[in-house]
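Report of the visiting student (M.T.), summer placement. My assignment was to run the structure pipeline on a short list of targets and document each run. The first record concerns Class I SAM-dependent methyltransferase.
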Amino acid sequence: MTGAAVRDSYGDTSTSAAKARYDAWANHYEADLMAAGYRLPWIFATVACAFLPSATTPILDAGCGTGMQFEPLHLLGYRGITGIDMSQPMLDFAQGKGLYDQLIQATLGEALPFATDAFAATLCCGVITPGHAPAHALDELVRVTKRGGILIFSLRDDFGQLPDYPAHRDQLYQKGSLREIFKTEAFASLPIGEPKVRHRVHVCEVVA
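After the run finished, the C-alpha coordinates were exported:
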Protein backbone atom coordinates (compact mmCIF):
# COMPACT_ATOMS: atom_id res chain seq x y z
CA MET A 1 0.00 0.00 0.00
CA THR A 2 1.03 3.62 -0.47
CA GLY A 3 -0.20 7.02 0.69
CA ALA A 4 -3.02 6.62 -1.83
CA ALA A 5 -4.47 3.99 0.49
CA VAL A 6 -5.32 6.67 3.03
CA ARG A 7 -7.16 8.72 0.40
CA ASP A 8 -8.94 5.70 -1.02
CA SER A 9 -10.08 4.48 2.41
CA TYR A 10 -12.32 7.54 2.67
CA GLY A 11 -14.03 6.50 -0.55
CA ASP A 12 -15.37 3.18 0.76
CA THR A 13 -19.14 3.02 0.49
CA SER A 14 -19.90 -0.03 2.63
CA THR A 15 -18.67 -1.83 5.73
CA SER A 16 -17.81 -4.91 3.66
CA ALA A 17 -15.62 -2.84 1.34
CA ALA A 18 -13.90 -1.24 4.32
CA LYS A 19 -13.30 -4.64 5.93
CA ALA A 20 -11.65 -5.99 2.78
CA ARG A 21 -9.47 -2.89 2.57
CA TYR A 22 -8.32 -3.07 6.19
CA ASP A 23 -7.69 -6.81 6.01
CA ALA A 24 -5.23 -6.15 3.16
CA TRP A 25 -3.85 -2.94 4.68
CA ALA A 26 -3.06 -4.08 8.24
CA ASN A 27 0.72 -4.45 7.88
CA HIS A 28 1.16 -1.01 6.24
CA TYR A 29 -1.67 0.90 7.90
CA GLU A 30 0.32 2.75 10.54
CA ALA A 31 3.17 3.69 8.21
CA ASP A 32 0.74 5.11 5.65
CA LEU A 33 -1.20 7.11 8.23
CA MET A 34 1.95 8.49 9.82
CA ALA A 35 3.15 9.62 6.40
CA ALA A 36 -0.12 11.54 6.08
CA GLY A 37 0.52 13.30 9.39
CA TYR A 38 -2.30 11.48 11.17
CA ARG A 39 -2.70 13.08 14.58
CA LEU A 40 -6.23 12.12 15.66
CA PRO A 41 -5.06 9.37 18.10
CA TRP A 42 -2.85 11.76 20.05
CA ILE A 43 -5.42 14.54 20.26
CA PHE A 44 -8.03 11.92 21.21
CA ALA A 45 -5.74 10.57 23.95
CA THR A 46 -5.14 14.09 25.30
CA VAL A 47 -8.89 14.63 25.58
CA ALA A 48 -9.41 11.22 27.19
CA CYS A 49 -6.78 11.97 29.84
CA ALA A 50 -8.61 15.17 30.77
CA PHE A 51 -11.90 13.39 31.51
CA LEU A 52 -11.04 9.77 32.28
CA PRO A 53 -8.90 8.83 35.30
CA SER A 54 -6.24 6.25 34.50
CA ALA A 55 -7.74 3.94 37.15
CA THR A 56 -10.98 3.64 35.10
CA THR A 57 -11.69 0.02 34.21
CA PRO A 58 -12.93 -1.81 32.23
CA ILE A 59 -12.67 0.23 29.03
CA LEU A 60 -13.83 -0.69 25.53
CA ASP A 61 -11.75 0.47 22.55
CA ALA A 62 -14.36 0.22 19.79
CA GLY A 63 -12.78 -0.06 16.35
CA CYS A 64 -9.31 -0.49 17.83
CA GLY A 65 -7.57 -1.35 14.56
CA THR A 66 -3.84 -1.90 15.13
CA GLY A 67 -3.99 -0.31 18.57
CA MET A 68 -2.51 2.98 17.37
CA GLN A 69 -5.10 5.11 19.15
CA PHE A 70 -4.81 3.31 22.50
CA GLU A 71 -1.02 3.15 22.60
CA PRO A 72 -0.54 6.64 24.12
CA LEU A 73 -3.10 5.86 26.83
CA HIS A 74 -1.38 2.56 27.63
CA LEU A 75 1.88 4.45 28.12
CA LEU A 76 0.07 6.66 30.64
CA GLY A 77 -1.09 3.70 32.72
CA TYR A 78 -4.55 2.84 31.38
CA ARG A 79 -5.26 -0.89 31.73
CA GLY A 80 -8.18 -3.34 31.66
CA ILE A 81 -8.92 -2.75 28.00
CA THR A 82 -10.99 -4.77 25.54
CA GLY A 83 -10.48 -4.00 21.86
CA ILE A 84 -12.88 -4.82 19.05
CA ASP A 85 -12.47 -4.44 15.30
CA MET A 86 -14.09 -5.89 12.19
CA SER A 87 -10.70 -6.83 10.69
CA GLN A 88 -8.93 -9.88 12.08
CA PRO A 89 -5.56 -8.94 10.50
CA MET A 90 -5.76 -5.56 12.25
CA LEU A 91 -6.48 -7.34 15.54
CA ASP A 92 -3.55 -9.67 14.93
CA PHE A 93 -1.29 -6.64 14.51
CA ALA A 94 -2.66 -5.10 17.72
CA GLN A 95 -2.12 -8.36 19.59
CA GLY A 96 1.62 -8.04 19.12
CA LYS A 97 1.68 -4.77 21.07
CA GLY A 98 0.43 -6.25 24.33
CA LEU A 99 -1.96 -3.37 24.99
CA TYR A 100 -5.24 -5.23 25.47
CA ASP A 101 -6.66 -7.73 27.93
CA GLN A 102 -8.69 -9.22 25.11
CA LEU A 103 -9.29 -8.60 21.42
CA ILE A 104 -12.55 -9.62 19.75
CA GLN A 105 -13.64 -9.47 16.13
CA ALA A 106 -16.89 -7.48 16.01
CA THR A 107 -18.43 -4.96 13.63
CA LEU A 108 -19.69 -1.57 14.72
CA GLY A 109 -23.25 -1.06 13.59
CA GLU A 110 -24.16 -4.63 14.56
CA ALA A 111 -25.07 -6.04 17.98
CA LEU A 112 -21.95 -6.18 20.15
CA PRO A 113 -21.11 -9.32 22.15
CA PHE A 114 -21.27 -7.63 25.55
CA ALA A 115 -23.83 -7.24 28.32
CA THR A 116 -25.57 -3.94 28.92
CA ASP A 117 -23.50 -1.67 31.21
CA ALA A 118 -20.41 -3.85 30.68
CA PHE A 119 -17.84 -1.03 30.55
CA ALA A 120 -16.99 1.95 32.72
CA ALA A 121 -15.95 3.87 29.61
CA THR A 122 -15.94 3.42 25.84
CA LEU A 123 -13.57 5.01 23.34
CA CYS A 124 -14.20 5.19 19.60
CA CYS A 125 -11.53 7.02 17.64
CA GLY A 126 -11.81 7.68 13.91
CA VAL A 127 -14.29 4.90 13.18
CA ILE A 128 -17.85 6.24 13.10
CA THR A 129 -17.59 7.70 9.65
CA PRO A 130 -19.12 7.06 6.21
CA GLY A 131 -18.11 3.72 4.70
CA HIS A 132 -16.71 2.41 7.98
CA ALA A 133 -19.39 2.39 10.68
CA PRO A 134 -22.93 3.79 10.48
CA ALA A 135 -24.23 6.58 12.67
CA HIS A 136 -26.43 4.17 14.62
CA ALA A 137 -23.29 2.35 15.83
CA LEU A 138 -23.39 4.88 18.66
CA ASP A 139 -26.50 3.14 20.04
CA GLU A 140 -24.63 -0.04 20.94
CA LEU A 141 -21.75 1.96 22.42
CA VAL A 142 -24.25 3.68 24.70
CA ARG A 143 -25.83 0.34 25.65
CA VAL A 144 -22.59 -1.36 26.68
CA THR A 145 -21.35 1.63 28.71
CA LYS A 146 -22.68 1.84 32.25
CA ARG A 147 -24.97 4.66 33.33
CA GLY A 148 -22.78 7.50 34.52
CA GLY A 149 -19.90 6.15 32.46
CA ILE A 150 -18.00 8.07 29.80
CA LEU A 151 -18.26 7.68 26.03
CA ILE A 152 -15.60 9.48 23.98
CA PHE A 153 -15.90 9.42 20.21
CA SER A 154 -14.75 11.37 17.17
CA LEU A 155 -16.85 12.51 14.25
CA ARG A 156 -15.75 14.15 11.03
CA ASP A 157 -16.39 17.86 10.68
CA ASP A 158 -15.76 18.55 7.00
CA PHE A 159 -17.49 18.44 3.63
CA GLY A 160 -17.11 14.65 3.48
CA GLN A 161 -19.36 14.12 6.48
CA LEU A 162 -22.92 12.89 5.88
CA PRO A 163 -25.68 14.73 7.74
CA ASP A 164 -27.08 11.62 9.41
CA TYR A 165 -23.98 11.33 11.64
CA PRO A 166 -24.33 14.61 13.56
CA ALA A 167 -28.11 14.21 13.35
CA HIS A 168 -28.00 10.84 15.12
CA ARG A 169 -25.60 12.19 17.75
CA ASP A 170 -28.00 15.07 18.40
CA GLN A 171 -30.93 12.66 18.61
CA LEU A 172 -29.15 10.79 21.42
CA TYR A 173 -28.63 14.10 23.21
CA GLN A 174 -32.28 15.06 22.80
CA LYS A 175 -33.52 11.66 23.99
CA GLY A 176 -31.43 11.99 27.13
CA SER A 177 -29.27 8.95 26.35
CA LEU A 178 -26.09 11.06 26.29
CA ARG A 179 -25.08 14.32 27.91
CA GLU A 180 -22.27 16.15 26.17
CA ILE A 181 -19.57 17.27 28.59
CA PHE A 182 -17.04 18.64 26.14
CA LYS A 183 -16.15 18.80 22.48
CA THR A 184 -13.00 20.02 20.79
CA GLU A 185 -12.90 22.59 18.08
CA ALA A 186 -12.65 21.09 14.61
CA PHE A 187 -9.05 20.27 13.69
CA ALA A 188 -7.16 18.84 10.74
CA SER A 189 -6.62 15.16 11.54
CA LEU A 190 -4.82 14.35 8.27
CA PRO A 191 -2.91 17.57 7.53
CA ILE A 192 -0.54 16.14 4.90
CA GLY A 193 -1.89 15.09 1.49
CA GLU A 194 -5.46 14.25 0.60
CA PRO A 195 -8.21 14.16 1.68
CA LYS A 196 -8.23 17.17 4.02
CA VAL A 197 -10.10 15.45 6.83
CA ARG A 198 -11.19 17.33 9.94
CA HIS A 199 -12.57 15.90 13.17
CA ARG A 200 -14.02 16.88 16.52
CA VAL A 201 -13.68 14.73 19.64
CA HIS A 202 -16.82 14.51 21.79
CA VAL A 203 -16.91 13.57 25.48
CA CYS A 204 -20.26 12.42 26.84
CA GLU A 205 -21.76 10.99 30.00
CA VAL A 206 -24.03 8.00 29.40
CA VAL A 207 -27.32 8.91 31.05
CA ALA A 208 -29.88 6.29 30.00
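The first strand starts at residue 59 and ends at 62. The chain has one domain: 4-206. I thank the supervising group for their guidance throughout the placement.
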